[in-house]
Amino acid sequence: MSLDIIKQGAEGRLYLGEFKGEPCLIKERFVKKYRHPDLDAQITRQRMKAEAKAVGRCQSAGILTPRILHSDLNSHKLYMEFFENAQTAKQYIQETVADSKSEQAQQTLEQLCSRLGSIIGQMHSQNIIHGDLTTSNVLINPNANAKDGYDIIFIDFGLSHYNQATEDKGVDLYVLERALLSTHSEQPYLFEHILQAYRTHCGQDEAAVLAKFEEVRARGRKRTMLG
User: Where is the Protein kinase domain (predicted)?
Assistant: First the structure.
């Protein structure tokens, strides 16, 4: 069966394919030729298993993610649910800004960010670290029965892990802040609205996580200043 490649990144390729008659996305991890083949296979299997576990934990917590239909550890492929009508949050934000008046766009995006912050807080309260929080790794899927007319689906848990450490949660938030400043620099209010909602949903470690986030942010600024 020929596969249609739709994205290629540093870690692997994403194809549009089929599993048991159902359209799906197939995520294939690259072989890292600079590593010993046995070590590479071991690391790849561990990361695939970690991704599947993170998705399962999210789903148990009521956080929407693509269903994993099949995992082939030998060929390093994950077969995942495909959302045909979804777009990334990055696309959604850009289109909202382009298609709406400034005040209307900001109100719409503040609602989105409040929902994003709530979900990320819920994720962290379950000690799930995403590892690559960006607006490219969130899908907006139309659903007339859902709040605001869409579902929010988190994707790409390839760098995820399970950890109670406030450091890891702080880094997760910092990665998101940097991604927003880079990709959506003309909407500087986005992260603050995410953080407001996050505070009320991240659990009992709120103060410790936010303090650690400020530490991580300060280290990042220092590295930027020093080059």
Answer: 1-227
Check 4, 72, 99, 132 and give the catalytic one.
132
Domain of residue 199, residue span: 87-225
Mean pLDDT of 44-70: 95
Element spanning 121, H or E: helix 102-125
> Is 132 marked active-site?
yes
121-144: average pLDDT: 97
The predicted model scores a pTM of 0.92
CATH of the domain at 76: 3.30.200.20
Buried b (16+ CB within 10 A) or exposed e, 86-124: bebbbebbbebbeeeeeeebbebbbebbbbbbbbbbbbb
Tens-digit pLDDT profile for residues 62-114: 999 999 999 999 999 999 999 999 999 999 999 999 998 889 999 999 999 99
